[in-house]
Amino acid sequence: MSFEVNLELWQSIGLLIDYSIKILAIGYVPEGRRPSSSTAWLLAILLIPFLGLPLFLLMGSPYINRRRHRIQQEVNDLIENVHEDVPDSPVGMELSPELRSVIRLNRRLTSMPALTGVNHGVYSDYRETLNRMTEVVDSAKHYVYVEIYIMAWSPLTKPFFESLERAVQRGVKVRLLFDHVGSWKYPGYRKLKKQLTLMGIDWYLMLPLQPWRRRFRRPDLRNHRKMLIVDGHTGFIGSQNMIDPSYLMRRNVKIGREWIDVMVEMSGPIVSSLEMTFAGDWFVESNEALDISDHQEAHESTPNTDQKSDTNVVQIVPSGPGYTTEPNLRMFNSIVHHAKKRLVLCSPYFIPDESLLEAVTSACYRGVRVELLVSEQADQFMVDHAQSSYYQSLLEAGVIIYQFPKPTVLHSKFVLADPDISDDPAAPVLEPLGVVGSSNLDMRSFGLNYEVSMMIAKGNLIQDLNKLTAQYQAKSTRLTLDKWNQRSWGRRYVDNVMRLTSALQ
Predict the structure, then answer these.
(1) What is the homologous superfamily of the domain 65-299 according to CATH?
(2) What residue stretches are annotated with the PLD phosphodiesterase domain (predicted)?
(3) Backbone dihedral angles phi then psi of residue 114, each to the nearest 5 degrees
């Protein structure tokens, strides 16, 4: 009898705890979150509270981020002080009020002004990009800053790392950052760390999970940025990691899967903004404050230019959990709304939040030709199905979906609004606007990843990316609504289930 009483007592206590967790979660989880993210977390907590709650406290709680919010604000304040006398956009550059408003938005959210930058090339061949970055490092005289999400030692990347070693031997200061979780699963991870130390390179892991060293971060956060800065005059930004295009995975090699990326080489005042972004991340991980005093040329007037000039008006837009205002999401939405005739979206992972989905479909309804470039099959199962769950509404709205053939992964990330230049003087004047960088068009990049993007307001970079778009489309197949409606019910079910987790991926 006493056993039955004790069992009933424990059952009652369990039910009380279960319902208490659920009631508290309903009132606490939605605070300060998008509805999609709140719904996903509540679903996990309500269905499996004894697992969902610990996961939420570990990965969903905003309090773990307080130090990064504070440091990010300090960095923003410092950047604002450096740029105190710098206007939002370069003096002498003709920009419409609409373009200036987008630039002002980015400046308000990140403290970064628009500056000029010379386009030295858009690199879309993986190996050519690595060779060019190696050449630029070999030209370094003072310092090299490297910040790349994934790094791995392999025959293909070895020459780049050896160029860093040669730079150190010449007396060049080399600082290097790479993401802990992003890199640890690839072959050669331990060898890489040992080699970097032996080479004399000053390096740190970003967002390390090392509680035994009192270095612990939320395990779901990533620093996804990709930058190379040499001597303050040359910078690279884009989507490519420092790893073999097969990502050194046997299955990828077996089926011939490789990643396709894009990197942009720039010089001029805009490099100072890349440098400031790196300095903020370096300070977070090393506690060493770098000199981020702005280059003098950033304050100087620049001559007028046009859309065909290699001198571009560009603006660096960093984003991530350290910001509370989602700068890259607001920038992408602004560019989508800016499009009048044609919009190009290229992203390996297209999992939009409500605002971006509505912006893209609204562009279709107002007559904009919207082209979405994605891989035929993403490299991650959950992401592939979550992304697919949006195709129905996109196709019905009129979005033209180009699928780059598998097994290749189209990993390039850029957005273009009205990139086509007409030679017809009677044609309406359209203002191209674009962005290229590390950010995917998914909720992880909007809220959980530290990203860096470069918005392009004027110059030939947009045309170069438009040419790259044509190359990608020539190799892709178009997904039609009729073909998509023929998918199996099993595929529809899995897509919809994965969509429920899209805000947490």
Answers:
(1) Endonuclease Chain A (3.30.870.10)
(2) 219-246, 406-445
(3) -80, 135
